[in-house]
Amino acid sequence: RGARDEGTEPIRQASRGSSTVFHRSPPSDSMAELAASTQLTALTDEASLTALGSGKVAVLFGADWDAPSQQLTQLLTEAAAKKTYGNVKLATADADQCEALADAFDVEALPTLLLRENNATVATHEAPSAALVNETLQEFAKRESVPATPSDAEAVAQTRLELRLKQLISGAPGMLFMKGSPDTPRCGFSRQIVELLREASVPFASFDILTDEEVRQGLKKFSDWPTYPQFYANGELVGGLDILKEMVADGDLKGQLDLKPIDDDIIDGQDEEAALNERLKALTSQSKCMLFMKGSPDNERCGFSRTIVALLREHAVTFDSFDILTDNDVRQGLKKFSDWPTYPQLYVDGELVGGLDIVQEMAADGDLTGQLGL
To answer: Facing residues of 293 across strands?
Structure first.
């Protein structure tokens, strides 16, 4: 992470909020009070951030006891009142009061400025000066807005959910999705199906759908079965309570289910690779134009990454990025996935364009944005 300006304090880490207590007198106007007095939004959680919409959003993470945070909050307060930064929505978040939100965005230093567009983080600045914040927001406001592509975002989310559901239903030869647990069923139908399976000596694992609404709703559509409980054998839907009752009436439920042991080699090998490939597919399609690089566009960690970022910005190419130094699975897996051994790598609509040399050649031919189809 970038170096902190002298005098700034790190946020409490690991056991934040439990082991460290700051004994400082808060200023007369807190971040929340300053925000409330203008059009500056005081965030409380991720829901309040989502409520700001998918346009350009700037979030200042700070604390009432931190003088630089107070200075920048005052700057944003005045800017919000004057609409200095155009259509950029300005917000603050007290890192002590919104620990979950700070954790979600890996905030480690105060103050931290987060820039977001289309519900994705496009830049992070740790311990910035007032001058840098002003300059950054001016540039952010002038930058051409990236049109939201909800259909693409939904497709990525659906792909991730389907992959997760496949992994869950194949987690054991016999898999029961129920309300509650086998020892503490939360509905009569779940209680009955557990008793039925146990009486027939059918081994099974279970998943409590009440703990995960995404799985609860997604599995109905995924398997085209609208109710719970649902029982799966060898990764395939058998049905609900009525179906299993009919099978019991026919005799030898365990034999009819024909549960097969899981092949650990397949799960640890092929399935793991398939899961990574699905993740890489989702990542490369995360935005219209995706750059996989070392570092971030505002803090490049190698010369090639710095050069391609400068080239894309020079030609007004709008892009999102992924720092491969933060995830070795992605770093190594993407080389094989796209059959391209080096970084940076640029993708458009999920398809590999190439590395720095390719992009330089395209720029030399003219109209880089047009050639990329952006």
So the answer is: 323
Question: For the chain, how far is it from start to end, CA to CA, in angstroms?
Answer: 31
Contact 43, 59 (CB under 8 A): yes
Query: 356-365 and 303-314 are packed helices; what angle lies between their axes, rounded to 10 degrees?
Result: 30
pLDDT of residue 28: 46
Q: For residues 321 and 319, what is the distance between their CA atoms, to the nearest angstrom?
A: 7
- Torsion (CA) 21, 25, 31, 37 in degrees, nearest 10: 150
CA distances for 294 relative to 117, 236, 303, 345, 352, angstroms: 21, 42, 9, 10, 17
pLDDT over threshold 90, residue 359: yes
CA–CA separation, 91 and 284 (whole Å): 29
Is 282 in contact with 159 (CB distance < 8 Å)? Answer: yes
- Exposure of 267 by Cβ count < 10 A (0-12 exposed, 13-18 middle, 19+ buried)? middle
**C-alpha–C-alpha distance, residues 281 and 53, integer Å:** 26
Write down the pTM of the prediction. Answer: 0.37
Least-confidence region, from 135-144, 273-282, 305-314:
273-282
Alpha helices, DSSP H, located in 251-288:
253-257, 264-266, 272-284
Average pLDDT over residues 183-188: 90
Span 353-366, average pLDDT: 93
Over residues 190-225, the pLDDT tens digits come to: 999 999 999 999 998 888 998 888 889 889 989 988
Angle of the 272-284 helix axis to the 150-169 helix axis, nearest 10: 170
Separation between Cα atoms, residue 353 and residue 368, nearest integer Å = 12
Share of the chain above pLDDT 90, in %: 41
Calculate the alpha carbon distances from 112 to 62, 82, 140, 245 in Å.
7, 22, 16, 59
For the chain, the maximum distance between any two Cα atoms, rounded to a whole number of angstroms, is: 78
Task: Return the DSSP state at 109.
Answer: B
- What would the mean pLDDT of 115-140 be, rounded to a whole number? 90
- Take residue 80 and report the two structure tokens written for it: 């919000």
Give the three-class secondary structure for 323.
strand
Non-local (6+) Cβ contacts of 112 within 8 A are: 60, 61, 62, 124, 125, 126, 127
